[in-house]
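Recap quiz, item 2
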Amino acid sequence: MLTFALSIAVSVLGAADVVSPAVCARLVMIGELGLDGRVHAVRGVLPAILGAAEAGFTSVVVPTANGAEAALVPGVKVVPVGSLRALMAYLRDEPPPVEEDEDDPPVPAPADGHAVRSGPHRDALDLSDVRGQADARRALEISAAGGHHLWLSGPPGCGKTMLAERLPTLLPPLERSAALEVTTIHSVAGTLPAGQPLITEPPFCAPHHTTTRAAMIGGGSRRALRPGAASLAHQGVLFIDEAPEFSTGVLDALRQPLEDGAVTISRAEATTRFPARFTLVLAANPCPCAAAKVLECVCTPAVRSRYLGRISGPLLDRVDLKLELEAATRAELRYDVDVAESSEVVAERVLLARERAAKRLAGTPWRTNSDVPGPELRRSLALPTSAMWPVDKALIEGTLSARGMHRVLRVAWTIADLGDRGVPADHDVGEALELWKGKRS
Ligand SMILES: Nc1ncnc2c1ncn2[C@@H]1O[C@H](COP(=O)(O)OP(=O)(O)OP(=O)(O)O)[C@@H](O)[C@H]1O
Ligand SMILES: [Mg+2]
Ligand SMILES: [Zn+2]
């Protein structure tokens, strides 16, 4: 893709005095030029214009198909053009030519094949589609309220994928600055949904288990660095379905973004940093034979433990909520119709809990409980001894690590926020601890 083809062509025309070089010099021009003179859409228009605005340019020429995306940058006049002829007319202050109304070919999608969704999930998917699974629904709500990572295991067809796909429907829409940041990433990746210049809903990215390391965390050549799935899920959900099927190196590469909220890619001459702060959801069958019932499983215990053992300890250590599901019973599937809460109802509670956390964390760089660093949990957010006993007991028994303790405390704050308790009580800490260790439903 020749993002600068248009500016190269106009420079030549300026040098030949066909257009005024002085007029051209004040303009930023972005676009790919076809041999027929048509200007085609390109990737990365939004960050390019943000950069141009920062450098003091006030007018930009962009392909018509990128016009809406370009218009997101305040203080910059956008001149959308469909052809070199239209641009020439603009530069010479002549009336625009009548352009044939041909559809612009879409910007090529990345070849990585991630299922990326950032549109209006609310319409298509709803939490009330999921019957039964009370524990999983509760864990999903806690995850949404605090930005905590989630692990779901269970037999085929128990609803793991269904649940994970509905997590974004519980999250509040993105604030303006987050929306611009997310849109920038998708603009660079070429995954902006057609007709939707600004992404305002938290994205959902579900890479396939054949995904390479570069496609997962980003990579490519120096001139064409691409954000990976971890960045496409920034401010949203990264869903690793069938987790044991991924190669271990690819999953372990997620440890850097999980720690830093960003991916740093180093090449000989430059280092690029893509934001990658997402809520991770991992799903897995308990064994490779994927039996619907435990009794039907034909795997040996060694095979079973090796299968789940493919998810490394350090990765699982970073997952706050772990749940082992059973298939919903026939009774639940048939009679839970009226009691299953909708996404709208749950999202309301999530929003209130998030507001309580944001109020407590006002004046700090952190917004949600999962952002709070460990030392802060012991300082300004230290809990009374009476609330800490479940954690103290687990530490003495050796069933909880120091990192685990911090994760439990963050989740305990979220559970307290959901229940509008100013400070976590011992049962909040207890519930968080149970979910950290792994709860069987
Ligand atoms: N709790 C549930 N409520 C309503 N429908 C369900 C539930 N669980 C499963 N289903 C139905 O079963 C189908 C399969 O569910 P889903 O794909 O989420 O299962 P899964 O646990 O991801 O299975 P797999 O391990 O095979 O990927 C769903 O499309 C849905 O129709
Ligand atoms: Mg599934
Ligand atoms: Zn099995």
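The pocket of magnesium ion (ligand 2) is lined by residues 160-161, 241, 283 (CB under 6 Å).
The chain has three domains: 5-91, 115-343, 344-440.
End of item.
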